[in-house]
Design goal:
Layout: H1 2-13, E1 22-25, H2 35-49, H3 55-61, H4 66-78, H5 84-99, H6 110-119, E2 123-127, H7 135-142, E3 152-153, H8 166-175, E4 182-186, H9 189-197, E5 201-205, H10 212-218, E6 222-224, H11 227-236
Parallel strand pairs: 1-2, 1-4, 2-3, 4-5, 5-6
Helix pairs in contact: 2-3, 2-5, 4-5, 6-11, 9-10
Length: about 240
Protein backbone atom coordinates (compact mmCIF):
# COMPACT_ATOMS: atom_id res chain seq x y z
CA UNK A 1 0.00 0.00 0.00
CA UNK A 2 2.73 2.49 0.94
CA UNK A 3 4.97 1.40 -1.94
CA UNK A 4 2.24 2.11 -4.51
CA UNK A 5 1.52 5.51 -2.91
CA UNK A 6 5.20 6.43 -3.10
CA UNK A 7 5.35 5.46 -6.78
CA UNK A 8 2.34 7.69 -7.53
CA UNK A 9 3.86 10.54 -5.49
CA UNK A 10 7.18 10.45 -7.38
CA UNK A 11 5.41 10.41 -10.75
CA UNK A 12 2.95 13.20 -9.87
CA UNK A 13 5.71 15.54 -8.70
CA UNK A 14 8.35 14.44 -11.23
CA UNK A 15 10.83 13.82 -8.41
CA UNK A 16 14.00 11.78 -9.05
CA UNK A 17 13.19 9.37 -6.23
CA UNK A 18 11.86 9.17 -2.66
CA UNK A 19 14.40 8.92 0.17
CA UNK A 20 13.00 10.01 3.56
CA UNK A 21 15.36 11.82 5.90
CA UNK A 22 12.94 13.98 7.93
CA UNK A 23 9.46 13.37 9.35
CA UNK A 24 7.17 16.28 10.18
CA UNK A 25 4.46 15.58 12.78
CA UNK A 26 1.38 17.63 13.54
CA UNK A 27 0.60 17.73 17.27
CA UNK A 28 -3.14 17.62 18.13
CA UNK A 29 -4.59 14.32 16.98
CA UNK A 30 -1.19 13.03 15.83
CA UNK A 31 1.03 13.17 18.91
CA UNK A 32 -1.67 13.74 21.54
CA UNK A 33 -5.24 12.46 21.73
CA UNK A 34 -6.42 16.01 22.35
CA UNK A 35 -8.95 16.46 19.56
CA UNK A 36 -12.01 15.02 21.37
CA UNK A 37 -11.49 17.61 24.14
CA UNK A 38 -10.85 20.40 21.65
CA UNK A 39 -14.06 19.43 19.87
CA UNK A 40 -16.18 19.43 23.03
CA UNK A 41 -14.72 22.80 24.05
CA UNK A 42 -15.54 24.27 20.63
CA UNK A 43 -19.10 22.93 20.70
CA UNK A 44 -19.75 24.55 24.09
CA UNK A 45 -18.09 27.81 23.06
CA UNK A 46 -20.16 28.07 19.90
CA UNK A 47 -23.32 27.22 21.87
CA UNK A 48 -22.66 30.22 24.09
CA UNK A 49 -22.23 32.43 21.01
CA UNK A 50 -25.50 31.06 19.63
CA UNK A 51 -23.97 29.10 16.74
CA UNK A 52 -24.76 25.54 15.70
CA UNK A 53 -21.46 23.67 15.65
CA UNK A 54 -20.67 19.95 15.81
CA UNK A 55 -17.67 17.95 16.94
CA UNK A 56 -17.27 16.96 13.29
CA UNK A 57 -16.96 20.69 12.43
CA UNK A 58 -14.14 20.94 14.98
CA UNK A 59 -12.22 18.08 13.35
CA UNK A 60 -12.72 19.53 9.87
CA UNK A 61 -11.39 22.93 10.97
CA UNK A 62 -8.44 21.69 13.02
CA UNK A 63 -5.24 23.47 12.03
CA UNK A 64 -6.66 26.96 11.76
CA UNK A 65 -6.11 29.43 14.57
CA UNK A 66 -8.86 29.65 17.15
CA UNK A 67 -9.59 33.27 16.28
CA UNK A 68 -9.92 32.34 12.62
CA UNK A 69 -12.44 29.61 13.45
CA UNK A 70 -14.48 32.05 15.53
CA UNK A 71 -14.47 34.59 12.71
CA UNK A 72 -15.48 32.02 10.07
CA UNK A 73 -18.48 30.77 12.01
CA UNK A 74 -19.65 34.20 13.15
CA UNK A 75 -19.60 35.28 9.51
CA UNK A 76 -21.58 32.19 8.50
CA UNK A 77 -24.13 32.54 11.30
CA UNK A 78 -24.61 36.31 11.45
CA UNK A 79 -23.38 37.61 8.11
CA UNK A 80 -20.74 39.90 9.59
CA UNK A 81 -17.09 39.73 10.63
CA UNK A 82 -16.25 39.05 14.25
CA UNK A 83 -14.77 41.79 16.39
CA UNK A 84 -11.35 41.54 18.01
CA UNK A 85 -13.11 41.58 21.38
CA UNK A 86 -15.27 38.60 20.37
CA UNK A 87 -12.28 36.67 19.12
CA UNK A 88 -10.37 37.24 22.37
CA UNK A 89 -13.36 36.54 24.63
CA UNK A 90 -14.48 33.34 22.98
CA UNK A 91 -11.02 31.95 22.32
CA UNK A 92 -10.23 32.47 26.01
CA UNK A 93 -13.45 30.63 26.88
CA UNK A 94 -12.59 27.77 24.55
CA UNK A 95 -9.05 27.53 25.98
CA UNK A 96 -10.35 27.48 29.56
CA UNK A 97 -12.81 24.72 28.71
CA UNK A 98 -10.04 22.69 27.10
CA UNK A 99 -7.55 23.23 29.94
CA UNK A 100 -10.10 22.10 32.54
CA UNK A 101 -9.70 18.53 31.28
CA UNK A 102 -6.04 18.20 32.25
CA UNK A 103 -3.18 16.95 30.08
CA UNK A 104 -4.17 14.75 27.10
CA UNK A 105 -2.62 11.31 26.63
CA UNK A 106 -0.36 10.44 23.67
CA UNK A 107 -1.99 8.87 20.64
CA UNK A 108 -1.73 5.05 20.93
CA UNK A 109 1.27 3.74 19.04
CA UNK A 110 2.88 7.10 18.26
CA UNK A 111 5.73 6.64 20.76
CA UNK A 112 6.72 3.41 18.99
CA UNK A 113 6.70 5.22 15.63
CA UNK A 114 8.85 8.06 16.98
CA UNK A 115 11.38 5.74 18.58
CA UNK A 116 11.65 3.66 15.41
CA UNK A 117 12.28 6.79 13.35
CA UNK A 118 14.88 8.04 15.84
CA UNK A 119 16.67 4.68 15.78
CA UNK A 120 16.68 4.83 11.97
CA UNK A 121 18.47 8.20 12.10
CA UNK A 122 15.56 10.29 10.84
CA UNK A 123 15.14 13.94 11.74
CA UNK A 124 11.89 14.44 13.67
CA UNK A 125 10.02 17.75 13.72
CA UNK A 126 6.75 18.96 15.19
CA UNK A 127 4.78 21.34 12.96
CA UNK A 128 1.80 22.77 14.82
CA UNK A 129 -0.56 25.73 14.83
CA UNK A 130 -0.20 25.83 18.60
CA UNK A 131 1.81 28.59 20.21
CA UNK A 132 1.67 27.59 23.86
CA UNK A 133 4.81 28.28 25.85
CA UNK A 134 4.79 24.89 27.59
CA UNK A 135 4.86 22.94 24.33
CA UNK A 136 8.47 21.74 24.47
CA UNK A 137 8.15 20.64 28.10
CA UNK A 138 4.95 18.76 27.26
CA UNK A 139 6.64 16.97 24.37
CA UNK A 140 9.73 16.09 26.41
CA UNK A 141 7.60 14.70 29.23
CA UNK A 142 5.62 12.43 26.91
CA UNK A 143 8.36 11.59 24.39
CA UNK A 144 11.74 11.85 26.15
CA UNK A 145 14.68 12.67 23.91
CA UNK A 146 12.67 12.88 20.68
CA UNK A 147 11.92 16.56 20.05
CA UNK A 148 14.30 19.53 20.15
CA UNK A 149 13.50 23.23 20.25
CA UNK A 150 15.25 23.95 16.95
CA UNK A 151 13.17 21.24 15.26
CA UNK A 152 9.79 22.84 15.83
CA UNK A 153 7.54 25.08 13.76
CA UNK A 154 4.75 26.72 15.78
CA UNK A 155 2.21 29.51 15.41
CA UNK A 156 4.94 31.99 16.41
CA UNK A 157 7.14 31.06 13.44
CA UNK A 158 4.82 31.60 10.48
CA UNK A 159 2.66 34.33 9.00
CA UNK A 160 0.27 31.92 7.32
CA UNK A 161 -0.93 28.81 9.10
CA UNK A 162 -2.37 25.62 7.68
CA UNK A 163 -3.78 25.02 5.03
CA UNK A 164 -1.12 27.36 3.61
CA UNK A 165 2.09 25.44 2.79
CA UNK A 166 4.27 27.86 4.78
CA UNK A 167 4.54 25.74 7.98
CA UNK A 168 5.81 22.69 6.10
CA UNK A 169 8.01 24.69 3.75
CA UNK A 170 9.63 26.23 6.83
CA UNK A 171 10.10 22.78 8.37
CA UNK A 172 11.67 21.59 5.13
CA UNK A 173 14.08 24.53 5.21
CA UNK A 174 14.98 23.93 8.86
CA UNK A 175 15.63 20.27 8.15
CA UNK A 176 17.86 21.12 5.19
CA UNK A 177 16.37 18.41 3.00
CA UNK A 178 14.78 18.21 -0.45
CA UNK A 179 10.98 17.80 -0.86
CA UNK A 180 11.37 14.12 -1.79
CA UNK A 181 13.23 13.58 1.49
CA UNK A 182 10.43 14.77 3.81
CA UNK A 183 7.28 13.07 5.11
CA UNK A 184 4.28 14.79 6.70
CA UNK A 185 2.11 12.98 9.29
CA UNK A 186 -1.31 14.64 9.68
CA UNK A 187 -4.80 13.79 10.91
CA UNK A 188 -6.86 16.72 9.63
CA UNK A 189 -7.84 17.96 6.15
CA UNK A 190 -6.32 21.43 6.58
CA UNK A 191 -3.00 19.95 7.70
CA UNK A 192 -3.07 17.50 4.81
CA UNK A 193 -3.73 20.40 2.41
CA UNK A 194 -0.71 22.20 3.86
CA UNK A 195 1.62 19.23 3.41
CA UNK A 196 0.28 18.49 -0.06
CA UNK A 197 0.67 22.14 -1.13
CA UNK A 198 4.30 21.99 0.03
CA UNK A 199 4.69 18.99 -2.33
CA UNK A 200 5.71 16.66 0.49
CA UNK A 201 4.65 13.04 0.83
CA UNK A 202 1.67 13.40 3.15
CA UNK A 203 0.30 10.59 5.31
CA UNK A 204 -3.20 10.99 6.72
CA UNK A 205 -3.62 8.99 9.92
CA UNK A 206 -7.33 9.00 10.75
CA UNK A 207 -7.19 9.07 14.54
CA UNK A 208 -10.53 10.86 14.95
CA UNK A 209 -14.11 10.87 13.66
CA UNK A 210 -13.47 11.98 10.09
CA UNK A 211 -14.21 9.86 7.03
CA UNK A 212 -11.15 8.54 5.16
CA UNK A 213 -12.42 10.49 2.12
CA UNK A 214 -12.01 13.75 4.05
CA UNK A 215 -8.26 13.16 4.15
CA UNK A 216 -8.04 11.67 0.66
CA UNK A 217 -9.90 14.59 -0.90
CA UNK A 218 -7.58 17.03 0.91
CA UNK A 219 -4.61 15.49 -0.90
CA UNK A 220 -3.24 12.75 1.36
CA UNK A 221 -0.94 10.40 -0.54
CA UNK A 222 -2.07 7.56 1.71
CA UNK A 223 -4.67 7.29 4.49
CA UNK A 224 -4.07 4.89 7.38
CA UNK A 225 -6.30 3.89 10.30
CA UNK A 226 -3.86 4.35 13.17
CA UNK A 227 -0.21 4.64 14.22
CA UNK A 228 0.24 0.88 14.44
CA UNK A 229 -0.61 0.61 10.75
CA UNK A 230 1.85 3.42 10.02
CA UNK A 231 4.65 1.60 11.82
CA UNK A 232 3.85 -1.61 9.97
CA UNK A 233 4.05 0.18 6.61
CA UNK A 234 7.33 1.90 7.51
CA UNK A 235 8.86 -1.41 8.55
CA UNK A 236 7.49 -3.29 5.54
CA UNK A 237 9.12 -0.76 3.22
CA UNK A 238 12.45 -0.73 5.11
CA UNK A 239 12.15 2.94 6.09
CA UNK A 240 12.71 2.08 9.76
Amino acid sequence: MLAQAITRFIAANKYPHFAPKAFFFDMDGVLFNSMPRHAKAWVETMRQIGIEFSEYDAFLNEGQTGRRIIDIFIRKAFGRPSTVEEQEKYYRLKSDLFDAGGAPEPIPGVAEVLNALKNAGMQIFVVTGSGQASLLGKLEHSFPGIFQKEKMVTAHDVRHGKPDPEPYLMALQKAGVQPWEGVVIENAPLGVQSGHAAKLFTVGVNTGILRPEDLQDAGADIVLKNMHELLDELQRNSIV
